[in-house]
Here is the input.
Amino acid sequence: MELEGIYRKSGGNSQNQQIKEGFERTNDFDISDPDLDINAVTSTLRQYLRKLPTPLITYDVYDKLLDSIPPMPPSHPGGPPQINPNHNLDLEQREHRVDLMRQAIGSLPAIHRTCLEVLIFHLARVVEHEKSNLMTSLNVAVVFAPTIMRPESVTRELNESQAKNQAVQFLIENCHGIFLGEKGVERGEW
Here is the structure.
């Protein structure tokens, strides 16, 4: 958890392959082996999630999550709308967004929802160590947003990267409210 750049840095291909093959052989492959590079473990997880035929956040829920991120007016005339940053929300706006995201996440298939919940709470734990690992909620979101959520249309991928990052950042920062229904609880208050 305290390794600088955890999840951002990639592991070596040979160890990534060793871990992948280990899990293909058995469901309980031991990744606690001290000879395994932690970056190889985290890279393998990211690759696995990226290669799922249906993303962890399914296509229909992808749109619902992005709809919960309201656009702001363009920063310059004729420009694209800017995304409302998560940190500028008042309590009522935050609670409304938590409710929208809870509803969207609730419409995921059960296995997707459970896996997403475990992953997001794990990522929130990673962020708790940001002083040593330098992985803020935004840094983690930038790494994981394209891995766990993507549109069906590849043409939308680049245009929506900022909104995806902010959606995943909000999930991480508000996981207790979104997944557990706790009101008024955000990162730093757990």
User: Anything to note?
Assistant: The first helix runs from residue 13 to 25.
